[in-house]
Specification:
The protein is built from 36 helices and seven strands. The chain is mainly alpha-helical. The chain starts with a helix and ends with a helix.
């Protein structure tokens, strides 16, 4: 059946985290501790916000207005090689060459609201935004928060200005439950009586982590949806390409008296002009060349550590202390002492020194803090053979992170890189630090990866208790979505009546909210209704939610895609397998054709397409589908992920149906062998794999072995799933057939597909 993908992965990012083992053991004690920590955290944040309120204006340049900001480098534009000029502002930046999207950008900032300029590193997005702001809004107040906390402090200051720009360069630094949420954005923008522009930039490589993407053959897109996607959905997005169009190049020729532009034009067939002027390709080559023995290998290792920290989601500056700790792994990995590394002080001087008269490999972010030149992680991420971020780096970053930052690290590890152990460690650290919104990570890690649905349920219950005890710390919609997820995991645990009760409560609680915010609870009610046995009503509820979602959000919105998922699902369970196949295929075509869908959604859709093709009796087409999706799961999620094991169990059954009995047995046995440590023996995926082992053991002629295996599965399935579960009944039926009990009252064995499709 799979997860309610777009909806519940969104929920998980709102309440990201894994609770330490004590949370599962004692709800009352943990709730008390978390409430205390959360309250202390809120008090601290409020005090810090008050201190920051006077620091939001750009006073270090002598004023508060946009027209008073002369140097774009001061607001995030990369410096170019300096030249002598009559205009001091052009010493570090060449004349601005209007981009093709500049008119659109100017119209957007004139309208006001939330405007995000998206592009690759060194595409020129910050410069384009800066020039549009200067041209169109010279008399607006200029407010530049330095952090998430500063952003919260900005709200009160913005409300005192009739016209202002809130400048958020590198928007990803501000996103998150403790930063820019949809609710905070609304407070910034106000009711329309003031002209407020929240003007942000965002690297395309970061933007894709918060949106949808198709399977590309590499690690799929992260599903950092949740509130972050809700914020981005409200933006007017302007894309600035790294490569320049012929029209842009022609305009650049008009500024070729500037030697930096003239030089860039000579290389515009290979690089974007802004990319070349910022020396991105040269800096990357310098870093790679410096691994050579006797050059700057320690400096290169420092840069490698900073690159991986940025890949992991650390956007703030890194201290020399943490860089010194992190870099040792990279230096040893490349050869250690054999590289004849330079002394530490020399290495730091080299890494932070401006090269090619533009930027250093490490860029100062604050006193004694450095960030990596962001062109470098972009190049690394684009390399399909790039090494994963080492566990040592993850854990060092987690140990030093603030709780909310630890939760963000956890979701980067979980969603973007599928590195489950660092994800779990990060979530645990976040919760232990008092960041209760991270609590649902246990549901994601322990429930979704480890298979411990009981622990997931207990964790979510604890988080809900904390949230209800500290209502001022969360929005009502957050609590509702957390409740939805509790309903989801309760249903997966087989407690369908209880799941439906929880889902209906979430739906009732959502009634005072906007119609859009009621859609997610309605999907959960549809799912729980179907799990409880009323598949016709589940289909009807899902179909109604789909119609409303298309009307309110459009056919490409993640919530609409989730509604289509449910309609296809309950079409099949209501008896129309052929119709379900058509709906699954249409949804898959829609996702791929429009480059939509999270990795999770695409895998779930394709797994269900394979299942329902086989349920419909089409083995010829179904077997290749299940083979392909099993391989995709292993490649993208890892061989040990529960959904990979579920797909491989389906592959075992299809292989046996195709007459390849021993191969089917080997596949099913491999599923049991490849479980992650800690996956419960009584988990439904494990029990289904054990059933397949018994089934194909019997088909291969080992009747005594099959009887022993069926008896064992029967005992454990009855204990875990109840005496009336389909797996229990199938075990009894198969045992009756093997022991020649012709008059056995049990129903005949039903094909495994309906059970397997539940995962």
């Amino acid at each position: 059946m799979a997860a309610i993908t777009a909806v519940f992965s969104a929920v998980a990012k709102i309440w990201s985290g894994v609770v330490a083992s004590g949370l599962v053991a004692g709800v009352g004690m943990v709730v008390s501790v978390l409430v205390s920590r959360a309250t202390s955290r809120l008090d601290f944040d409020a005090a810090q916000s008050r201190q920051l309120a006077d620091e939001l204006f750009f006073q270090d340049q002598g004023g508060r207005r946009v027209r008073e900001i002369a140097d774009p480098v001061r607001v995030g534009v990369y410096a170019a090689a300096p030249i002598e000029s009559d205009d001091p502002a052009q010493d570090r930046t060449p004349p601005f060459v209007r981009r093709d999207r500049s008119p659109d950008l100017e119209r957007a900032v004139q309208r006001g609201g939330f405007v995000v300029v998206v592009g690759e590193s060194t595409a020129g997005k910050s410069r384009a935004a800066f020039e549009a702001m200067r041209a169109c809004l010279p008399d607006h107040a200029f407010i530049r928060p330095q952090s998430r906390t500063g952003l919260r402090a900005a709200v009160e200051v913005v409300q005192q200005e009739r016209r202002c720009v809130v400048w958020l360069d590198d928007l990803q630094r501000y996103l998150g439950s403790d930063g820019l949420t949809a609710q905070l954005l609304e407070r910034l923008l106000g009711d329309g009586t003031r002209h407020v522009v929240v003007l942000a930039t965002m690297r395309a490589q970061e933007r894709v982590r918060y949106t949808t993407d198709g399977i590309s053959g590499d690690v799929g897109s992260a599903d950092m949806a949740g509130e972050q996607r809700e914020v981005l959905d409200r933006a007017t997005e302007i894309r600035i390409d790294r490569t320049w169009t012929p029209a842009e190049v022609e305009r650049a020729h008009q500024c070729a008296r500037d030697p930096r532009i003239a030089s860039a034009l000579e290389h515009c067939d290979q690089f974007g002009l802004a990319e070349y002027i910022a020396a991105g390709p040269k800096l990357f080559a310098l870093w790679q060349d410096s691994w050579a023995p006797g050059t700057h290998p320690r400096g290169a290792a420092i840069v490698a550590a900073a690159v991986d920290a940025r890949r992991a989601g650390v956007y703030g500056g890194l201290s020399p202390e943490i860089l010194r700790t992190l870099h040792e792994h990279y230096l040893l990995q490349r050869g250690g002492a054999r590289l004849r590394p330079e002394p530490w002080e020399e290495a730091m001087t080299w890494a932070t020194r401006a090269a090619y008269a533009t930027s250093g490999l490490l860029v100062p972010d604050a006193p004694d803090r450095y960030v990596v030149f962001d062109y470098l992680p972009d190049v690394v991420e684009a390399d399909p053979d790039a090494a994963p971020i080492p566990d040592t780096t993850w854990h060092e970053l987690i140990d030093r992170a603030e709780p909310a930052e630890a939760a963000h690290l956890g979701w980067t590890a979980y969603d973007w890189y599928q590195q489950w152990d660092p994800a779990q460690a990060a979530f645990a650290a976040a919760v232990d630090g008092g960041y209760v919104m991270a609590a649902a990570g246990l549901a994601a890690c322990l429930g979704g990866v480890r298979g411990d649905t009981a622990a997931a349920i207990q964790t979510l219950r604890s988080a809900i208790a904390v949230a209800r005890a500290n209502r001022e710390g969360i929005e009502p919609a957050q609590l509702i979505r957390l409740t939805e997820q509790l309903a989801f995991w309760t249903g997966l645990a087989g407690r369908h009546a209880k799941a439906l009760q929880i889902a209906r409560q979430a739906a009732d609680d959502s009634i005072p909210l906007s119609p859009v915010e009621t859609l997610s609870p309605r999907i959960v009610v549809a799912r729980s209704t179907g799990q409880s046995g009323d598949t016709t009503q589940a289909f009807q509820l899902a179909h109604e939610a789909l119609a409303d979602s298309v009307r309110l959000l459009g056919e490409d919105h993640p919530t609409t895609l989730s509604c289509r998922f449910e309609v296809a699902l309950w079409t099949g369970y209501d008896g129309d397998a052929v119709g379900a196949v058509r709906l699954w295929q249409a949804l898959d075509d829609h996702l791929i054709g429009r480059n939509l869908g999270t990795l999770e959604l695409i895998l779930d859709v394709r797994r269900n397409l394979a299942y329902w093709t086989l349920i419909a009796g089409d083995l010829e087409h179904g077997l290749p589908l299940i083979e392909n999706i099993s391989a995709d799961h292993a490649r993208l999620l890892g061989a040990h992920h529960l959904l990979t094991l579920a797909a491989r169990t389906g592959l075992a059954h299809a292989t046996g149906q195709a007459g390849q009995l021993r191969q089917a047995l080997q596949i099913a046995e491999g599923v049991i062998t490849d479980r992650l440590d800690g996956t419960p023996d009584l988990h439904p995926v494990t029990l289904n794999a054990r059933f397949e082992v018994a089934l194909w053991t019997s088909a291969c002629g080992d009747l005594d072995g099959a009887i022993t295996q069926f008896n064992s599965v029967l005992t454990h399935a009855a204990e875990a799933l109840g005496p009336d579960h389909a797996l229990v009944l199938d075990c009894r039926s198969c045992l009756a057939g093997l022991t020649d009990q012709a008059n056995h009252p049990e129903r005949p064995y039903h094909d495994s597909w309906m059970r397997l499709s539940e995962w």
